[in-house]
Design brief:
The protein is built from 9 helices and 6 strands. It is of the alpha/beta class. It has one domain (3-156): 3-Layer(aba) Sandwich (Rossmann fold). A 6-stranded parallel sheet has the order 3-2-1-4-5-6, sandwiched between helices.
Length: 192
């Protein structure tokens, strides 16, 4: 049975840690495919800062022609909140004979109990966990048996921090982004 990983998020904007996670997940778990799923309206966030079309365009810039990586607009096309269990079910129906994993950060692992329909999710799917700095995962955390961990800790970068830096310190923001993404942001004057 092959493994398919779903990497959902706002990607507002996509940054170097997102790409690092995708690359490490592909190598670490011999994935058949990794699919970025761009959220139109994530249930845990109040708003998005760049338009959905811009977020998809930025993601395409950094994944273009990367082997085994795809972008899905499944959630974006719904134009509403789509819960993770719905997205995972959608891809399980598409990849019926494959095992579906969801990629999340270790900070999200600590909050899984708040997810919509989490008991259903952990019964049917597994998680690939990207270890974030300064997040301690104890051995008694719930759902740990449904997780596999990327060995290497990822860089501590957040889209929120980048959006702030674009206004305050553009050169620092540029260092956290792929050059094509930074150029796109500058050209479109996003996050200013």
């Amino acid at each position: 049975m092959s493994k398919i990983a779903i990497f959902g998020g706002s990607f507002d904007p996509v940054h170097k840690s997102h790409i690092q996670i995708a690359t490490l997940a592909l190598k670490s778990f011999n994935l058949k495919e990794l699919i970025f799923v761009v959220a139109y309206a994530p249930p845990h966030k109040r708003r998005q800062y760049a338009d959905i079309k811009d977020r998809i365009s930025m993601l395409k810039l950094v994944t273009h022609n990367v082997n085994k990586i795809k972008i899905s607009c499944y959630e974006a096309q719904k134009r509403k909140v789509v819960y993770s269990y719905q997205t995972l079910d959608h891809f399980q129906n598409l990849y019926f004979f494959d095992e579906i994993y969801m990629i999340i950060g270790s900070d999200s692992l600590l909050n899984l109990s708040t997810w919509e329909n989490i008991d259903y999710i952990v019964t049917h799917y597994k998680f690939i966990i990207a270890k974030r700095p300064n997040i301690e995962i104890s051995s008694n955390i719930k759902y740990l048996d449904r997780c596999v961990f990327i060995d290497k800790e990822i860089e501590d970068i957040s889209s929120t921090k980048i959006r702030e830096l674009i206004k305050l310190d553009p050169m620092m923001a540029a260092s956290l982004l792929d050059k094509k993404v930074y150029d796109y942001i500058a050209q479109k004057q996003l996050y200013v």
